[in-house]
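Final report, closing paragraph on structural work. Over the funding period we assembled a curated collection of sequence-structure pairs, and we close with a single example.
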Amino acid sequence: MTITIPRRALLAAPLAAPAMVRAQGAWKPARPVNMIVPFAAGSGTDTVSRLLASLLEADWGIQVVVENRPGANGAIAAVATARAAPDGQTVMITTNSPHGATPALMRRPTYDAVADFTAISRMGTYIFVLALNDQVPARTLGEFLALARAQPGRLTCASGNTTGVVGAAMLNRLGGVEITHVPYRSSPPAMTDVIAGRVSSMFADVAASRAFLAEGKLKPLGITSARRTPLFPDWPTLAESGLPGFEMLSFMGAVGPARLPEEVVTGWNAAIRRVWERPETERRLGEFGIERVTSTPAEFAGFIRQQIAFWGEQARAAGIEPE
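Its predicted structure, as stored:
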């Protein structure tokens, strides 16, 4: 059932005007704002969201409270955001999970990924890597696939988001293997079990896994993008390593509830771009394995529509049945 904003909430929206401060015509919040994150603390999205929150606090002089709402591949956070008052005090840092794949994975979606939200700005592209526990006797994708073919169903692949869900299905389909999918509520506990050897592999975002990759606790086999990234030029793509056609783009961006006033959207977009387009911010995002992106609200809204279609196609091609 799609979330709708109660009519009384819309009628009450003008009452929120006193909380809006205009300085030289630009909107900014006058009291602490809430930034909802759809994944647990320690995830890549959480890490980048806390960076953004700290930058906005310094820029605005207003507290930005990060609220983790993990579960249901981002649907719990999405519903909470859709139900928030459209006054600019609540935004969500979304990804391809709640605003791409999750709508295709749910038989009865609990929200409308387009109609229930206002796009604010695209913020970046995640780099995901297929990573193995260091005890798995494989150093390349070819060796891992050969091992999986020799032991059908014995190797496992964890997921803590929809990139992991769809990635595991694509790995089986394109690789002609049977690797058992092990779903988790969020990425940090999934990664913990991969490192401990309880699960063989996972599609991990570099923001959360880079330290473990550097220490050798996880082994990178290849990235999910269609081309190599300049951030990690030595890492091959999965497509070039033996899975032709493998491509998954994972994004992040900011959205608010539907019907945000234009001045609020403009204020949020300007603030994000102001702090995001600094060279120092780009450097820090690169350390997290994030390729920085900014956009207008309209550009991000169109991008979300494209991603919903793309991830729906990927899920169907991978044979994933909505639940």
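The longest helix spans residues 297-317. Residues 1-25 have pLDDT under 50 and may be disordered. We thank the funder for supporting this effort.
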